[in-house]
Amino acid sequence: MAIILGAGIIVKLVMLLLxxxxxxxxxxxxxxxxxxxxxxxESERFMDFFWKxxxxxxxxxxxxxxxxxxxxxLFNEGYNELKKVVETDSxxxxxxxxxxxxxxxxxxxxxxxxxxxxxxxxxxxxxxLATTGSTSPFIGLFGTVWGIMTAFEGIGKTGSASLAxxxxxxxxxxxxxxIGLVAAIPAVMAYNHFQHKxxxxxxEMDSFTTEFLNIVQRNIAGK
Amino acid sequence: xxxxxxxxxxxxxxxxxxxxxxxxAVFLLWVWWGQLYSPQMAIQETYYVDVVNLPVVDPLSxxxxxxxxxxxxxxxxxxxxxxxxxSPSRPAPKVGTKFIxxxxxxxxxxxxxxxxxxxxxxxxxxxxxxxEAVLEKLRSKVKAGGSPKTGAPGADGTESGSRYxxxxxxxxxxxxxxxxxxxxxxxxxxVRLTISGxxxxxxxxxxxxxxxxxxxxxxxxxxxxxxxxxxxPPNHAVFENGxxxxxxxxxxxxxx
Lengths: 223, 256
What we know:
The structure holds two protein chains of two kinds.
Chain A (H helix, E strand, L loop, with lengths): L1 H4 L3 H44 L3 H7 L7 H24 L8 H22 L2 H33 L4 H60 L1
Helix pairs in contact in A: 2-6, 2-7, 4-5, 4-7, 5-7, 6-7
Chain B lengths: L11 H25 L68 H39 L18 H18 L9 E7 L5 E9 L3 H14 L12 E8 L2 E4 L4
Antiparallel strand pairs in B: 1-2, 1-3, 3-4
Helix pairs in contact in B: 3-4
């Protein structure tokens, strides 16, 4: 405790900045952990439910059960677009779906748009983790350099280079680097972990898009 | 048209609050841990009796055993001659032994006067020797070009700085006992120390070394350790002296 209170004003400010970085990055880590975990679990459950169900309207009525899965967003967007295409075609010539595959393109675009928005949602705040991981050690190092400069000034004024004079100043300075590393290490680890998890979810969304379009195309071609 | 599914994402604000609470808990744990297991000092504190500022034993006041000019024997307690008298509880000596004879009153009076005369003679001799030693020191100091103004605290001003040197030497010896380590048989390191008027170690210069790096390091550490214990030199004058470090002890007054 005394090692923090005994530091200079600049070192204290650096420590405060690093502490705020640490608090925010841990807040993001907690938020992302639950968000990604829920997305992963509910996606698995949704895919089970999707393959067991025979009809899109039955799936659409149950989609709220898997609200945190990005696949449900894709499904909703795709299903809504498909309904629009069907309604338009019904009004134009009375048949269920046109066979020129123009409707499939619309659904594909809607799914791509939904995928992008879900990727943006999942990757939100991760840049802060990357920033914390890369800059915190340097900020801490700055505090340390400043603290050691101050300590050497003190040594020059007292005229004594004994360990009792030198050691406390350097210890107070080094605490800034320590706090910088404490803030940076979890941020970097969490960033890499979430990047991997989100990449898996993106792959799942791509696979789901392909499957969804295949089903739609089979149905259209079968009409 | 189907509405978007309602998500139950925990708000980021809740996560920030949880994070702040975790940080606070870790900080309190750290403070508690620091109080519970405070860092131990590697070297135990040594308590000194400041022999420099203690009143100097005046040879006139009684000690016949004290030799003038011998600083280390200065605190030796006075040995009273009546100690040779037998204690009452002691068993009576055998007849014919020379150990203690029951003295007649007349003999006792004679021996007392002889004893007093002998004591006076010893005191006169010791006083003369002491004065001679002081004069000799002063002569050597003046010859060496030293400043006669530097006097030790509590001294009579005639012993220019030599007692502060002893004081520094004793601190260095205590510290060397802690740090002493050598790899050769009889290492020697001659060091010149300069101490500022407020008792801070200004300069340390190794003037000569037998080449034992381990002992040199031990000497440096000893000086570093002892420098915390230095007090201000007499009259706040800068003190400079050479010390010869050996594993068995330190001698001061090493010339350049």
